[in-house]
DNA sequence: CATGAATGAGCTTTCATTCAT
DNA sequence: TATGAATGAAAGCTCATTCAT
C-alpha cells in the first residue's frame, strides 16, 4: 500500500512508468484485443496495476481514455505524413514513400490501428466529431499529393483523387484483419507491394 | 433452439412477415447502427414487436442472431461471386464484373457490411471460426480469378494474388466508413472506379 | 430459488404481498428512516426480499420509486380533503374537520410525511414539477375553504388566505420532527389542538 | 482537526476572506442548493477556491463542516431570541417581536434555514444530539414566553405551550418551501402576518 | 408458441478520506 | 500550511438468460 519512492512523484510500484501512461498502454492493448465495449474498466486498472480511483483521477471517463489513445495515434500519423509530403523529391516518390510508410507504421502498431478502425463509433458524439476532423486533415494532405501528381500529368486522372485515397486507406485499415507477424511477408514487403499497387493504378 | 416451423409460420401481429425474419431484420439494423454490444436484446424484440421469450424460442442466444445475419450475407455474396466467376467471358471481364458487383451490393446493403467488418470478433470462437472458413472460401474464389489472369499473362505478377485480393477488399470494407447515399457518386459509379483501379493496378 | 406457488402469479416467497407493493413498502420505510440519498437500492431490495433486477423490472429508477410513494400519498390526501370540503356542514366545521383530519392521517403515516417534506427535491425536475402541481391542487382546495369563510364573514380577513394555509401546513409538516407516538398526546388530541389554533386565529 | 489560527489567517488567494470562512460560506450555499448528500467535497473546495487538503486541514470531516454551519446559525438565532425575550416590555409585545423576528431572519438566511430543516439527520449521532440540545434550549426559551403570558392571563391556556411553539415553528420551517423573494409580500409583511396569526390564536 | 417476472453478475462512475511531500 | 495522487468501498443501473405458466 505505501510507496517508498522518493524524488519523482509520478513513478510507482515496481514499474518506472508514470501511472497515466501505464493506463494508456493497458487500455490500448485491451481495447485492441477485445474491443472497447468488451473491455471493463476493472480489467484496465488491473492490467495497469492501479485502482479505479487512480484511473478516474487522470481520465474523466472510459471514453476519455479511448480518446487519448486516438489523439496519440493521430498526432504520430499526421507528423509522419507531413514529413513525407514536405520532402524534396518528385511527387511519385513522395506519394510512394507516404503510402508505404503508413503501412509499415500501421503494422508496427496494429493495436492502435485495430482500435482506430473498430472503436471510433464508441466515442461520444463531440469527441467523435473531433477525431473525424483531424482524420479529415490527414485525408486532405494525402489527397493533395495525389492531385499534385494528377496536375503534373504523372498520375492518371481517370479516378477522382478522393476515391484513390479511400482506396488505399481501405487496404491500410484492412491490415489488422489479415496481417500476421508470422506470415510470409515482412511489414516492409507488404508496404512496398501496397504502395506499388497504388502507384501502378495511378499510371497514366 | 428449434428453428423451422411447420407449414407457414404466419405468426405476425399487424405485419405479414414471419417473426424470425422480423427479428433478423430488426437485429441487422440495430447491430449496424449501434454495434453488437450496444444493442440490447430488449431493443431488438421491441423493434420487432415481439417479446424476449419469442426471440429465445427461435434463436438460442444473441450471438446466434448475429451469426444468422452473417450467414445470410455470406450466402448471398458467395452466390453472386460464383455467378460472375463462372461466367463465359475473358478473365479481365469476369474479375472486373465481380470486383464491381461486390461494391454495388455492399453499398446496397451497407448495414450488413457494417456489421460484417465491425462485429465479427463478437461471435463466439466456434462461430467466428465457421464464419472465417466461409469467408476464406470467398477469398479463395476471388484469388483464383486473379491467379488465372496472372497465369494467362493478362495481369501483372508483380504482386502476390493474395495481397491483391486483400487490397481490393480493404476498399470494400472501407465503404461503410465514407460512402454516403447523398454523395456525388452513384453506387455504380463508385463500383466502376474501384474496379478500374484494381484492373489498372494489375496491368502488366 | 424455485417457487412452489401456484395460482396467483404475483405472490412470492414467504410473503403473500405482490413484489411491487413489497418494494414500495420497503422503500417508504427506508426513505423515511434514512432519507432518500442515504438509502441504497441494495438496502431496499434486501428489505423487500427480492433482487435488484426485480426492482428495475417494475420501476424505471430509484427516482421512480420515490415518485410512486408520493403519488400514493397525494391521492389519499386529496381524497380525504375533498370529502371534508364537500360535506354538508357550515364552513367552520368543514375547515376544522379537514384541518384536524390531515393531522391525524399525517401522524398515522409519519413515514410518508417525512418523505414528503424532506425528499421532494430529490425527484427529477419533471417529476418534481408534477408533484408540485398536484400539491398545488391540494393547497387550492384548502384555501378555497378559508376564503369561503372569509367571504361569509365567519373568518377574519386580516390575513391572506394563502398565508393561513401555509401557516397550518407548516405545522403539519413539522409533526414528523417532534411528534412521538409515546408522547403525552394522542394523534386526535394533537389534531384537535392544531385545528383549534387555526380556527382561533381565524376568529374575526 | 485544529481550528483557530494564530494572528490573522489572511491566507487568501484573490480574496480577502480567510480560508475557513470561505469554505463555510461555500458549503452553506451548496448544502442549501443541493442538499448535504448531493454536495461533494470536491465541489465545496472548488467553490471556495482551495484544495481538499486545505479543507481537511481546517475541518475534520464533511460532517464537521455541516456542524459548523449549524453552530453558527444556532448561535445567531439564540442571541436574537434572548434579546427579544429579555426586553423590557409586555409579554405580548415580546412574543410578537420574537415571533416576527425569527421569520424575518429566517427569510434573510433561507439557505441556512433550508439546511437546518433538511439536513439535520445527516449529522453524526453525537453531533445530532448536540444540535438537538441547543435547539431544545431555543424552544424552551420561546415556550417560556408563551407560558408567561398564559400565567398572566393574557394568552389562552386552551393549548399546551409546547404545541403552540411547535405550531409557530412549523410555519417558520415551512418558509423555505414556499417563500419567494419576488413574491407579493416583503419578509417583514410575512413576519407580521405570521406573528399576528400566533397572537390571535392565543387570544383568551 | 409465447409471455414476462425474476435473476445475478457485471458495468461505469463517484466519493470521502489519507498521506507523502 | 497546503497539495493532489491514490485508495477502496459503494453507488445506481443494465443485461442476457431462464423458466413456470
Characteristic terms for this protein:
homotetramer, mainly alpha, Arc Repressor Mutant, subunit A, 71% helix, DNA-binding, DNA-binding transcription factor activity (chains A, B, C, D), transcription (chains A, B, C, D), Homeodomain-like_sf (chains A, B, C, D)
Assign the structural class of chain A, choosing from mainly alpha, mainly beta, alpha/beta, alpha+beta, or little secondary structure.
Answer: mainly alpha
Please give the domain count of chain A.
Answer: 2
- Rg of chain A from C-alpha positions? 20 Å
Major sheet attributes of chain A: none
Q: Kindly state the mean pLDDT of chain A as a whole number? A: 89
Explain this structure:
The structure is a homotetramer of 204-residue chains. Chain A is mostly helical and 204 residues long. Chain A folds into two domains: 19-58, Orthogonal Bundle (Arc Repressor Mutant, subunit A), CATH 1.10.10.60; 62-202, Tetracycline Repressor, domain 2 (Orthogonal Bundle). Chain A is 71% helix and 0% strand. Chain A is built from nine helices and no strands. Chain A has helices at 19-34, 41-48, 52-58, 62-85, 91-108, 110-119, 125-152, 161-178, 187-201. In chain A, α1 packs across α6 (110-119) and α4 (62-85) packs antiparallel against α5. Chain A is elongated, with a radius of gyration of 20 Å. The first copy, chain A, binds a DNA duplex (21 and 21 nucleotides) through residues 1-3, 5-6, 9-10, 12, 19, 40-42, 50-54, 56-58, 61-62.
